[in-house]
Amino acid sequence: MNIIDIINKKRKYESLTDEEIKYVIDGYLNDEIKDYQMSSLLMAIVLNDMNNDEIYSLTKYMADSGEKLDLSPLGNNVVDKHSTGGVGDKTTLIIAPIVASCGVKVAKMSGRALGHTGGTIDKLEAIPGFTVNLTQADFIKQVNDIYVAITSQTENVALADKKIYALRDVTGTVESIPLIASSIMSKKIALGAKKLVLDVKVGKGALIKDLTAARRLSRLMIDIGKENNIEVVCMLTNMDIPLGNNIGNALEVAEAIEILRDHKEGQLRTLCIELASHMVSLGLNISYEEAMTKVLTNLSNGMAYDKFLELVKYQHGEIDKLPQARSKYEIKSMTEGYLADIDAYKLGLLSMSLGAGRKNKEDAIDYSAGIVIGKNIGDRVNVGDVLMTLHTQKEVTNIDSSIFKISDEKVSEEKLIYEIIK
Amino acid sequence: MNIIDIINKKRKYESLTDEEIKYVIDGYLNDEIKDYQMSSLLMAIVLNDMNNDEIYSLTKYMADSGEKLDLSPLGNNVVDKHSTGGVGDKTTLIIAPIVASCGVKVAKMSGRALGHTGGTIDKLEAIPGFTVNLTQADFIKQVNDIYVAITSQTENVALADKKIYALRDVTGTVESIPLIASSIMSKKIALGAKKLVLDVKVGKGALIKDLTAARRLSRLMIDIGKENNIEVVCMLTNMDIPLGNNIGNALEVAEAIEILRDHKEGQLRTLCIELASHMVSLGLNISYEEAMTKVLTNLSNGMAYDKFLELVKYQHGEIDKLPQARSKYEIKSMTEGYLADIDAYKLGLLSMSLGAGRKNKEDAIDYSAGIVIGKNIGDRVNVGDVLMTLHTQKEVTNIDSSIFKISDEKVSEEKLIYEIIK
Fold this sequence. Notes:
2 copies of one chain form a homodimer. By secondary structure, chain A is an alpha/beta fold. Chain A has helices at 3-11, 18-29, 35-48, 52-63, 91-101, 120-125, 136-146, 159-169, 177-190, 211-227, 249-260, 267-284, 288-300, 303-314, 344-356; strands at residues 80-83, 106-110, 148-152, 195-202, 231-238, 246-247, 327-332, 337-342, 370-373, 380-381, 386-392, 404-407, 417-421. Chain A has a 4-stranded mixed β-sheet, sandwiched between helices. A 4-stranded antiparallel β-sheet of chain A has the order 6-9-11-7, sandwiched between helices. In chain A, strands 10-8-12 form a 3-stranded antiparallel β-sheet, with no helix packed on it. In chain A, helix 10 links the parallel strand 4 (195-202) and strand 5.
């Protein structure tokens, strides 16, 4: 077997065998297959596709290429959740305690942020004292004790996926449904998931641009799940709607608390309730409607918020010491009309420049920094109304005025959740 | 501009601009663009193709990426010839003196061999004393003096093409008409060609498998030629027919002499006459028929052979000292029938194992080693007839009996030359 023959097969639209895919993954991990050969093969896969058998093999060998977690001591009602990229992972902060309060175990491993996207771990670290580096034993014990734990992801899971993902990022081979599906699922398999709700983001700003692609990706992840005894439910959601009003670590924790205390309406709450209900339905093996009743009950009776406080306390966080920015700047509208669009990408960049994110891995984060958006899409905007409040320790100059699009006519509300596939 | 955006454009079937292609070639040559990015882009080009404007730009920047030769001091009747890969470059040995004897200048830069394919330079070095490293000044002077010179190719021509070609070889991105066309033509442009006859090999053993692909490649090289003021004529020829009977350096020189002395018929002679006639037609601006008359005349009156002797003498070769192998082994047929096929690839490997070729760049060549084939396709073969004679200093063992295919029925003769495109 040699890599050039394998590349040539894929180039000619032929399928690769299980042995060939194993050879590629093993060879790439131990550097016998070079980056320039892997990237050529990846581009051939991007353009000539893979069939399901090829994708199952790819996922399997990537999942096997690092440490594997065994969550079986936690029993059968453990549920995981994943979102396919995009700004704002704050849903995890809200959903994990809701779901745990309903009697479903949430053993969550999360990542850190780089660039304008936020990471759950960074948000939790905005809470003074909060420990994010749990040992595997402590992690399992905590989930058994209080049904929820959130820890930073081990570096040694699905090592081939990690190496391939880094290569895809610099070789224009990111946008491929087989490669996206196998990357997500290989990690979930390695992390021991058995029940999984996937939030598949669709939109012009997302990796997945349209519903056709989103449906194929969803079906594929469900099929990979079946091959690996993982129950998968996919929610196809609108990426182009900004979720919630707060951006920045401590500010997002504060917003999560508002929702957990049932003090805030809106699309972030709606999405969290739907995601949580699917997780509870999977975890307890009950209908979606029953699950949603539990979720809504625990939001209104305070049990979800109590679970959040319990989680924070168990991981040594002091929620009453959430940091606040020294200075706040209000950015006011100079025109009138209706808020038609908010550019989430530019907002992310602005938030980063205020100190809320890191450009490089080594950068320190100002946990108090961020943005609070004053209006929602469709709201009436008058001259002088506050569009956003900037929280920062830095000097604020040169705010990009194109972040908010204000139009004369009220735009019709966009759909938040397109469909559920299971 | 950045390489990832450029790769993504090509991935999405968009065309690259002249500036983008310049950026790629410059960046790759100075290592700003990495091998793994270039190979990803190359695979995207292989699968998503390039339009003519893209190919012109690619060819131009590759041609400009190294030394350039100026042949204008030689005037307007200089003609070059190139063959698209394959075993047996011995046509150059025969054609160059024929064409020169007709009053057309042949300033030929040739390469060395690696593996089972032969290089013109190695064959000439089989002639004791023959100098293949001419300075540029001596090269030009010799062509002016006797109308023909053959020297080894400078290492510094079309450096981007050289780097890209080496990468394509190990990344399954060889088979692409735009990449093949731009690679050949960039070198020819850099070497100063103005009139060019291209022998496009077609067949299952060739880079170009069918006539459709061969026609596109030919049209493309003609179009690239037009863009660069080079007159190009393409001959589409059958790759699957073995040309001539001798393989091995001194043996091929001997066979070239046989044809130049008009002592040998057959398809090698036919091909050489056709190629030479097209070159003479281009060089003297006369009709193909007139050119062929000159070629045939100079073969029969000895002028072509005299030109060969003049060339050898000018480059200090001693043709009467051509080396001969110490031992010869006759391989005889054990069956009877008609010779139906000869496996040129296996013959090449056998010849190499006898000492005629090098596996690695550093290996020494035994110039006397090689093979003389005793039968032509279609010949009657009886038990005990000599199929081939091996010339070597080595022990001969384990001859692959599948080199010759002998069948009960006489096969119909295959076409040698498919068509001419200009």
